[in-house]
Amino acid sequence: MDNPVIRTLLNHRSIRKFTDQKLSEDQIELLVKCAQAASTSSYTQSFSIIGIDDPALKKELRIISGDQPYVEANGGFFVFVADQYRNKKIGERSGIDTRVLDTTQRLTVALGDAAFAAQNMAVAAESMGLGICYIGSIQRDIERTAALLKLPDYTFPLFGLAVGYPDQEPEKKPRLPLKNIYHRNTYAAQLDDAALERYDQQVADYYHSRTGGRREETWTEQIANGLSTPPRLALKPFLEKQHLGRR
Amino acid sequence: MDNPVIRTLLNHRSIRKFTDQKLSEDQIELLVKCAQAASTSSYTQSFSIIGIDDPALKKELRIISGDQPYVEANGGFFVFVADQYRNKKIGERSGIDTRVLDTTQRLTVALGDAAFAAQNMAVAAESMGLGICYIGSIQRDIERTAALLKLPDYTFPLFGLAVGYPDQEPEKKPRLPLKNIYHRNTYAAQLDDAALERYDQQVADYYHSRTGGRREETWTEQIANGLSTPPRLALKPFLEKQHLGRR
């Protein structure tokens, strides 16, 4: 069952250092076409992609993201937006009541459409010898991100995708044992502790090798530590303001 | 820039009729591995996959979905779940305050992780000669879906993915013109009407050819008509009950 697609998928690692080479217009167009080819709920295509090449804008997004250099230094940067604004405009032209677009169900659909599209772009990029890194931290100041990109209501910026020619070769990060993420017919609320312990050791080894022994965090330690980061509470009021997920 | 991955991505069409052949355990394991290889926010892997092969359960899900036969008749059926329950359990064991998991930010992250994984599985499946169809309508009775799958709190079932050997060869559904979905640096609130009109004609032609002339809906008509479906309002209280997206 081995094939070039499976190999591309299994070979994924996030790239956080890119060469100076920019993506060509043709590459960008192909990436967007691949993104669009993904499934979309009820054919609504409830997402938009914003390609950022303005240096000042990239710098601003870098600052918002907590100063991650690869937000600015990459071959291309794309922001994926859950988008019900287009659908709203189309409905209004036909004189249709568009209130349904403010539901949590429609927000969920738009999030899915945007994420399917983004993952297709990521896979396409990697097949072309490019590397990618998702940037969720454009939401660290979501109001400012939305203002910079001039996002109208009924839209929600989800994450950025930095794309470019890799200037590093990181190791693959080990994933959870199958038993701890895959369930058969019903959810197994009990964790498989033996598998999880082995996994913890595998992750500690990964960090040890990657940092030359400076870091040896297990996966469960990382999860537990992540719970102590201050909650980012601006998203709910932002969505409310954008008329999304109101009911 | 053509390669087998790009070809697989651009060749996507949803399959709604499968042969009787079931996926093998090896195929399922590979599909899950490919799903897991996708990016995950802060390495949290905030999703679970539930593989459904119990016939009674598949039948129930078929009924919930509005009696779509391919929910029951397929090679394999997978439900993708946004999952903060695992992280919560891990946090509790370390005596960490896990309240951050009830934020909209953490819910968004889990939705993204689950959707990236699902799209990887979809692409992997198509590369193996299988077809796929997302089933968002398992949310039509989300309480019952969650009860059937015994989902604990901090989890949210997003969609099913029906996978199997295609027993039909549908045409590719045309996607929005680039200009109406791709923006440069800032969001273009103005629709490109000329491109949209050509697209509407293209979609009407697609339906005409697919239905032998019985249907000729344009894309904007379909969007407008979709706005009149009754809103599905159970998602917000369900999420609240699951301790997700509360703030």
UniProtKB/TrEMBL annotation, chains A, B:
Coiled coil: none annotated. InterPro entries: Flavin_OxRdtase_Frp, Nitroreductase, Nitroreductase-like. Keywords: Flavoprotein, FMN, NADP, Oxidoreductase. Signal peptide: none annotated. Residues 11-165 form the Nitroreductase domain. The keyword Mitochondrion does not apply. Gene3D superfamilies: NADH Oxidase (3.40.109.10). Pfam families: Nitroreductase. One of its GO terms (molecular function) is oxidoreductase activity. Belongs to the flavin oxidoreductase frp family. This is FMN reductase (NADPH). It comes from Sporolactobacillus terrae.
